């Protein structure tokens, strides 16, 4: 081998080492990033499907804790709950106008808490632990088979099973069909 050939080999060997080093640096920078985002994306995708109720695909509407009150309610033992039914603006407008059936886009949310004796005043009852969040969404086409309403019942933010969702419409249908399947009246 001539000395120029040896020199050439050495220089391409050096280039190769530099390239490998660059590759290692790139991999070391990217891998932790890829490792952290991949499961996060999977989790988000999973949440999007499992956070929706079975049968209806209803989700907890964002911001419902700021919605206007339609009426409170109380449930006797064994549930022993305090409830508050709230609605989005479409719901409130329909209630105030006394409009039935409710228009598409109406969302009603029933919040519920265990009844708790006030620690500050014996005869007063205050909300204890939150129990369920129940949602009704009006979409007369999508939910034509259930009076135009989609139902969702959530505990700790997760929807309950399909069997429970099969009971919703039956009870609302049997008792308040004439009020567009809605029990709650606007509190005076
Ligand atoms: C056995 C009867 C019954 C069943 C089953 C039932 N509900 Fe209701 N629902 C009621 C009553 C009664 C009210 C009135 C408020 C109250 O007393 O808590 C109500 C109120 C509601 C409200 C507030 C709007 C309204 O109609 O007043 C929502 C939202 C709701 N229910 C969702 C659901 C969902 C979701 C399911 C199924 C997981 C369900 N309900 C199953 C009886 C029932």
Walk me through the structure:
The chain has 188 residues and is α+β, with helices and mostly antiparallel strands. It has two domains: 1-50; 64-179, Cytochrome P460 (Chalcone isomerase, 3-Layer(bba) Sandwich). It has four helices and six strands, in the order αββαββββαα. It has helices spanning 3-50, 89-97, 162-165, 168-176, and strands spanning 68-75, 81-87, 107-117, 125-138, 149-155, 158-159. It starts with a helix and ends in a 12-residue tail after the last helix. It binds heme C (HEC).
Please give a quick description of this structure:
With 188 residues, this protein is an alpha+beta fold.
Fold blueprint:
Elements: H1 3-50, E1 68-75, E2 81-87, H2 89-97, E3 107-117, E4 125-138, E5 149-155, E6 158-159, H3 162-165, H4 168-176
Notable traits:
188 residues, alpha+beta, 4 helices, 6 strands, binds heme C
**Small ligands present:** heme C
Q: Low-confidence runs (pLDDT<50, min 5 residues)?
A: none
Q: Give the class from helix and strand content and strand pairing.
A: alpha+beta
> Can you tell me the CATH architecture of the largest domain?
3-Layer(bba) Sandwich
Enumerate how many helices there are, as a single number.
4
Helix and strand run: HEEHEEEEHH
| Helix content, binned percent | 25-40%
């Amino acid at each position: 081998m001539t000395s120029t050939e040896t020199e050439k080999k050495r220089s391409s060997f050096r280039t190769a080492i530099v390239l490998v080093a660059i590759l290692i640096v790139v991999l070391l920078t990217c891998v932790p990033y890829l490792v952290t985002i991949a499961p996060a994306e999977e989790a988000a995708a999973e949440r999007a499907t499992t956070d929706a109720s079975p049968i209806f695909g209803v989700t907890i509407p964002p911001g419902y804790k700021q919605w206007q009150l339609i009426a409170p309610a109380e449930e006797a033992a064994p549930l022993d709950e305090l409830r508050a039914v709230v609605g989005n603006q479409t719901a409130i407008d329909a209630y105030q106008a006394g409009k039935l059936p409710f228009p598409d886009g109406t969302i009603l949310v029933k919040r519920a808490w265990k009844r708790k004796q006030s620690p500050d005043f014996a005869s007063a009852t205050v909300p204890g632990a939150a129990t369920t969040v129940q949602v009704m969404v009006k979409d007369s086409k999508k939910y034509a088979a259930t009076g135009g309403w989609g139902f969702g019942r959530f505990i700790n933010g997760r929807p309950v099973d399909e069997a429970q969702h099969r009971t919703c419409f039956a009870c609302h249908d049997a008792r308040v069909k004439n009020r567009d399947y809605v029990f709650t009246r606007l509190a005076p």
